[in-house]
Amino acid sequence: MNNKASNSEMQSLKSEVEYRTKLQEICSKIYAAMNLDEIIINLKDEITGLFAAERLTIYYVDGVKREIVSRFKSGNEINEIRVPISPTSISGYSVHAKKLVNISDVYDKKELNRFDPLLEFDSSWDRKTGFRTAQVLVVPILYKTFLLGAIQLINRKGGTAFSKTEEGYVTELAKIMGIAMYNQKRMAKTRSGKFDYLLENHIMTQKELGKAVSDARAKNDAIENVLLNDLKIPKKDIGDALSKYYKVPFIEFNKSLPIPGELLTNLKVPFMKNNLWVPIRTEGEMVVIALDNPHDGQKIGEIQTLFPKRKLKIFVSLKDDILDYINLFTQDEKELSSIDDILSRLDDEEEEIVEAESGVSEESSAVVQLVNKVIIDAFNRNASDIHIEPFPGKENTKVRIRCDGACSIYQTIPYQFRNAIVSRLKIMSDLDIAERRKPQDGKIKFKKYGGLDIELRVATVPTQGGMEDVVMRILAAGEPIPLAKMGFSKNNLDNFVSCITKPYGLIFVCGPTGSGKTTTLHSALGYINKDDIKIWTAEDPVEITQKGLRQVQVKPKIGFDFAAAMRAFLRADPDVIMVGEMRDKETTHIGIEASLTGHLVFSTLHTNSAPESITRLLDMGMDPFNFADAILCILAQRLVRTLCPDCKKSYTPTKQEYDELVREYGPEEFEKFVKIPYSDQLLLHKPEGCDACNNTGYRGRMGLHELLMGTDEMKKMIQGKAKMDDLRNQAVSDGMTTLKQDGIAKIFEGRCDLLQVRKVCIK
Ligand SMILES: [Zn+2]
């Protein structure tokens, strides 16, 4: 064995491995780079080091000018050199001929002329700088047939020509560069135009776009997401840009959009998720599809096969919005299947169960799951009510839910399943399935069926065409809202608190159904709920639960009504008694007696205003003297939708608009209570609409109040059975502001607008 030989072999092998590793490193850096310019400038030293060359130049092809360009850093600036693609220079020749050029001495004319008679070395640079160029190796950068640039190495250290091995390595590097340059070019091409709108309107700069593109690639995310999240470009502007580019409408995620039940049957969720598309709704015979890239003809073709004989209407949407829609429409709730799963199973079962009239059986597990899903979804969306609305014939059944006081469509269900769904709900609420001509009411203890600890109050109503609607009120075991968050004006809050902290007396909250009376009562009880007082409540149903209260559900069907509950409470050592409603003489009478014997009694009345409540109770036959003694206050309440705090828009009202508000309030009282003069600094607010409020401009609700205090003068008037108008005047002179006045004051506070106030204060 010759040790020497094997050593040098080992050494060359070792250096080859090192070489390869280093080359690999450089190549992967180029591959991963988004901004090729930048990476090339940064990698310059590494590449020259690798090949033991003195200088490295990387050229790009500028196809328009037929030149090759190289950018280099000098200080903090980036400069460029341009060379024509022609045999008149060494690098220009290499690109022109698409040939590797390896020259050992550029000043040797003969060596140059072996390549091309026109080939010359421009020595002016050398003369200017004092640099002496000797060896040059140029490798053109190509990808397939595309000419993209060149790598040029100058002066091999040691003074000998670049070796064959080095030629091979540089060729390899050129190949990788070719792929990277081609990719960048292609991406720039597909990208060009997509966000032109944002550039033209100066919503972002070209530089920001460039960075967004490279950030998106580094994060493996959509560029749109980077624009949205990092550059904080409004979604609406991105949507406008995409819409202009793809020439189709833009649709953004909106969680209140109804689930297009029929369209989701038989669709596979993974297919939609992987390909980023989702059916949104039908428009006549057309199916509206949201897609991330409406230029993808192949994808659209595949989607078309899923909706044979129907026309597609394509909308562009953002990746995340499409995924949000898919999740919204198909979301899994614990062990529940997605809605499309359930609906597609309904289809299968329909074929098995041949029942001409009723379609599908209510015992079908798919129907059971569908009903559970509707309830769980509605609860998760903070809905207060669910409306099941079947139609005769082949029209699909509508499911609507009410959130923040307004109804919206949750889903439509194929007509074949309407009877099964209604029957299922009736079974769950212990109602008579056979009785379809009379209204019925019952209750669902949902824990028995779906796991969520909620109750639903169910009402069925026979509707036109032999149908039956089902309306469910969701009774969430909710916490009481703190009194301070109920939207009371400071004055009203102080006065109301002074009443509810008294040891005895009678307090009423009045208003129509849905005006939040029970919520307010519970807030009041929450305020005084301490270990040292005993509070009994009788409710139908128990909608809000509070620790510390002893809450009783009345059952009028078995004779345990409000009056019976009150009598029971009086034997059970109460300090405070709350009775859900005083609608009959007996209950009211017991309530007044109880308050006169040292108890604080709360209840509600189904009346429109505070003064009207007094008239109503006297008309009912209450003793005016007892009643006058007992009464602490009567609070009339309405709920208005509040302006969305995220998007409400301030504006200066016209003098006319201001005068109108003052006139509606009453000029004298406005002077006394609101005291805001007109000026051009005055700001009111109006609804605008944003993501947070589903583009309605309104979010949440608050109370408008009218608080009549049981003052001495008021008590005297009650004893004298005064007329309603006189009661009202007395209340006003005691300092009461009406519901409308409270609303107008809240308009000036920027919390609501006149439209909503008018809605609940029609007189
Ligand atoms: Zn909003």
Question: What would you note in describing this structure?
Answer:
The protein is α+β, with helices and mostly antiparallel strands and 763 residues long. The protein folds into 5 domains: 29-189, Beta-Lactamase (2-Layer Sandwich); 196-246; 261-330, 2-Layer Sandwich (GMP Synthetase, Chain A, domain 3); 339-475, Beta-Lactamase (2-Layer Sandwich), CATH 3.30.450.90; 483-760, P-loop containing nucleotide triphosphate hydrolases (Rossmann fold, 3-Layer(aba) Sandwich). 42% of the residues lie in helices and 22% in strands. The strands form 5 sheets. A 7-stranded mixed sheet has the order 18-17-19-20-16-21-24, with helices on both faces. Strands 3-2-1-6-5-4 form a 6-stranded antiparallel sheet, sandwiched between helices. A hairpin with a 3-residue loop joins strand 14 and strand 15. Bound molecules: zinc ion (ZN). Zinc ion (ZN) binds at residues 644, 646-647, 689-690, 692-693, 699.
